[in-house]
Amino acid sequence: MEYTKVTGTGVEISRVAIGTWAIGGWMWGGTDDDQAIAAIHRALDLGITLIDTAPVYGFGHSETVVGRALTGGWRERAVIATKAGLEWSNDGVRRNSSRARLLKEIDDSLHRLQTDHVDIYQIHWPDPRTPFAETGAVLRELYDAGKIRAIGVSNFSPAQMDELAKTAPLHTDQPPYNLFEREIERDVLPYTRAHGIAALTYGALCRGLLSGTMSKTRAFAGDDLRNTDPKFREPRYSEYLGAVDRLDRFAHERYGKRVIHLAVRWLLDRPGVSAALWGVRRADQLDPLPEVFDFSLDASALAEIDRIVHDEVRDPVGPEFMAPPA
Questions:
Q1: H or E, element range at 310
Q2: Residue ranges per domain, the chain?
Q3: Dihedral of CA 116/122/125/128: which sign?
Q4: DSSP per-residue letters across 120-181
Q5: How many Å from the N-terminal Cα to the C-terminal Cα in the chain?
Q6: Best CA proximity match to 203, nearest among 157, 236, 155, 256
C-alpha cells in the first residue's frame, strides 16, 4: 500500500480508499450488510485506511454499516471521510448546506458512525441557495471544536472552492476521475495541485466498467443507477466495452496485469491525485488490490492508453447524470 499526508492536517491516508456508496444499497440494487462489513475488514487488513461514506448513501445506512464494522478496535485503524449538505424526503434529494442542516448532520453522522470525530468532512455538492460564507463558518466551527480533523468538498468548481476557502481552510477535494471521465484535468486538478489540496478522486472503476467484468448481457437489478447511466446504453455501451477489452489486452501484454489494475494504477500515477476511491461491497472485489502496487506506467504506456480510449470511444459522455438537482 502507498500512503500520503493531507497537507495542513495530521491526517495520513492510504492512496487507495474504499467507497461505500454501494454499501448503502440505494441506487445499487440493494446490498448485504454482513458482506459489506467483511469487505471493510478485508480492506483494512490489506492496508487501506481511508473509508469514504456519506449520509445520503442509503439514507444513513452506509454510515451505519461503516460504524458497525469499525467497532471492536477497528476504528483506530481507519480514517473516516464522510459528507454533508444533502437532505432527502419523499420528494427526493436536494442540496442544503445551511448552518442548521450541517449542525444536525454532523451529530447524526457521529451517532451512526459510532465515533466522536470525523477525520475528513466534505460538502457533498455545492448548494447555490446557501452562501458559501455560511457553510464555511460552520465547517470552521466544527474543525476548531475537534469534531472534524480536515475540511473537504466534493464536486466543486475552482471558483466555488475559492469562495468557501475565504471562511474555512480547505484540505481535500473529491471529484470524479477515471480513464473515461477526465473533465477535472481542465481546471479542478490544476487548482488542487496549485493550492496543496488533496484530491480524493471517486469513480476509479467508472461504475464497474473498468473492472473487466462487464458484458453486453449484464443486467442490473432494481434501482441500480447503471440502468440510467448513459455509458451503459447503446451505442455507447459497446464503445466503452470495446475500449475495456483493448485496455485489458494491453495491460496483459505489457505488464501481465488486467484492466482493473491498469485503471487504478493510472489514477495513482496522475500528478496531483492523492487517493483513488475503489467502490466495494464484497471482500472478494478487493482481491486484485495487491497487484496495483508492483508496477507503474511510463510515458509510452500512457500514450497508448490515450490512443485506445480515443479510438474506441467515439461518443464520450461524462458523469453529469449523477448530480442531484441544484
A1: helix 299-312
A2: 3-212+267-289
A3: positive
A4: EEEESS--TTS-HHHHHHHHHHHHHTTSBS-EEEES--HHHHHHHTTTS---EEE-B-BTTB
A5: 38
A6: 155
Supply the pLDDT for residue 142.
Answer: 98
Place of cell 500512503: 3
pLDDT at 280 over 70: yes
Whole-angstrom distance, CA of residue 218 vs CA of residue 213: 9
Q: What is the mean pLDDT of residues 166-195?
A: 97
What pLDDT is attached to residue 223? 75
> For residue range 56-107, what is the model confidence (pLDDT) as tens digits?
888 889 999 999 999 999 999 999 999 999 998 888 889 999 999 999 999 9
Q: pLDDT tens digits, residue range 133-147?
A: 999 999 999 999 999
Residue type, 42: R
pLDDT tens per residue across span 233-265: 999 999 999 999 999 999 999 999 999 999 999
Quick one: which of 172, 183, 163 has its CA closest to 120? 172
Please identify which of the residues 57, 143, 191, 240 carries the catalytic annotation. 57
Indicate if 57 belongs to the active site.
yes
Q: How far apart are CA 39 and CA 51, in angstroms?
A: 11
CB proximity list for 256: less than 8 A, separation 6 or greater = none
* Burial zone of 324 (CB within 10 Å; 0-12 exposed, 13-18 middle, 19+ buried): middle
Q: Which helix (H) or strand (E) holds 43?
A: helix 33-45
Residue 222 phi, psi (nearest 5) = 50, -125
Class (C level, CATH) for 3-212+267-289: alpha beta
Number of helices (H) and strands (E), helices first, in the chain?
Answer: 9, 12
Question: pTM for this structure?
Answer: 0.93
Of 28, 100, 38, 43, nearest to 68 (Cα)? 38
Which of 195, 196, 119 is CA-nearest to residue 150? Answer: 119
